[in-house]
Known about the structure:
Its EC number is 3.4.-.-. One of its GO terms (molecular function) is hydrolase activity. Residues 1-56, 99-125, 164-214 are annotated as: Disordered. Keywords: Hydrolase. It comes from Streptomyces luteolus. The chain is an alpha+beta fold. The protein folds into four domains: 1-36, no CATH class; 56-110 and 124-143, no CATH class; 145-227; 239-356, Distorted Sandwich (Glucose Permease (Domain IIA)), CATH 2.70.70.10. Helix content is 37%, strand content 17%. The protein is built from five helices and 14 strands. It has helices at residues 56-75, 94-99, 110-123, 145-230, 350-356; strands spanning 3-4, 16-17, 130-133, 139-142, 239-242, 259-262, 268-270, 275-282, 288-293, 299-308, 315-316, 321-325, 335-341, 347-348. Strands 5, 6, 7, 8, 9, 10, 11, 12, 13 and 14 form a ten-stranded antiparallel β-sheet that branches. Strands 1-2 form a two-stranded antiparallel sheet. It is rod-shaped and about 190 Å long. Residues 1-26 and 116-141 have low confidence and may be disordered.
Amino acid sequence: MATPTSRGASGHEPAYFPDGDQTFGQDDGPWEEWNPTEESVRPVRGRHRVGKQRGGFARSSTVLGVGVIAAVGAGGIATAKDRPPVPISLPDLSGVTDSLPDAESLPGVGSLISDSDESADAGSDFSGVTQAAAAGGAPVAQLDGGQQAASADAGEALRSRIMQQAESKQDEAAAAEQAAAADAAAKAAAEEAEKQQTEAEKKAAEAKRKAEEEAKRKAEAERLAKLARSFVSPLSSYTISTTYGQAGSMWASGYHTGLDFAAPTGTPIKSIHSGTVKEAGWSGSYGYRTVVELEDGTELAYNHQSSMSVSVGQKVTTGDVIGRVGSTGNSTGPHLHFEVKTPGGDLMDPGAWLRDKGISL
Length: 361
């Protein structure tokens, strides 16, 4: 049996030498060439199969398809409307392919070709794509009608979605504007209502104040009217000749200590209020003098009388005649010198006291 050796230096099929210890390259004896047979060569199956050697045009088409896909991914999709197709020239490989033997004639190779024909044919079919040259030399792809329609539909869908988003944003902006306007109107209405309420409260407070003042005025008027019924003027007809506090050398204190009612001699003098006669008689510079003490301790003095009608300890009521106008004592003419002392004994303005009791002078 011949023993195979490694491939020779010339690249021919490995040589087999006859039995014996033969060395490659030596001329020690005759050797014979090994010819494969169907029994010695079996088809290689499984994952160790050798890929089919396809013709030159199929391989070029595959390379062209890969180039077109790479160009499309790098530079975008260009349609036939934008760029004219550029013709591609390929070398004529017919002479080479004609000289090659048929694959089916090679033992153990036909099955490999038959198994991979479908995948090869499917991978090399780029009938709808041609390569074009873009401005500046960049390759672009030309799409057929179906691909153009699909691209147009995708663009229209994108445009529609963008328009919908824009309309949604506009609706949101309009809603926000309406809400802001409603809030502003509500705020203005609240401020106006608060302003009106404040003004109403001010008016109500002012009306209440005026009502209270009016009530006080009426109460005071009623009080004075009541006092007027219990207090009367000492003279029915008179003229105020000298007021309280006037300065002068004719008065020992240096000022006038009472209120003078000038009237003719003999004019009746009435008791201003009910009380008890405390003094009745001559009193020096005061002439004939009558003093009536009221219930609260206030003393009313009637001076310069021409005559007296009451005595000490006598009870008198409002309007009783207690004497008559005269000019006795330190007097320059007929008049009633009227004085008022507080319960503590201090002199006070008779005019103010009479007005407080509701008597107009």
